[in-house]
Amino acid sequence: MKKNVLIFGLVMGTIMCIHMFYMVNLCYTQPDFNANDVLGYAAMVVVFSLIFFGVKNYRDKELGGIISFGKAFKTGLLIALTASTFYVIVWLFYYYLFVPDYLDKFIPHMLKRASKEGAAELAAVTKEMDEFREMYKNPVFVVLITYFEVLPVALLVTLLSSFILKRKVAEGHGNS
Known about the structure:
Blueprint: H1 2-29, H2 37-62, H3 69-97, H4 102-115, H5 119-135, H6 139-165
Helix pairs in contact: 1-2, 1-3, 2-3, 2-6, 3-6, 4-5
């Protein structure tokens, strides 16, 4: 299981980091870019589908086609945690060493987006971004918020994958 978790987790984490580098680069090079949250989460779900394939690979190649919901969930969770931890570590190095002024690029983008929604939305987002900037001064917060960006979606995909892939008896063996 360890090899399976490591391979799928690191591949998934690498893909997530490539996406992160791309989005940060957009923020620096095209300040007027219009990020679509729905599209962003859809892309995450596609990347996190590797959890499904990681659990399926483990079930089929190492467990003879049989896996409980709990074992499937544990495997998916470990893949998700591996990928998310890789993502968090890479972000910490990238942020502190290469883009320490990232918030100076990101916050104006968020405020511009909010201004299109009206004065009330702009005021709310301005307050939120001020709090965000203050909290981002604490590395513990940076770690927590970075995990929170990706882990909830990964957990949802893990849960769904576990339900879909659980199999008590291999097909063709025993009663159906």
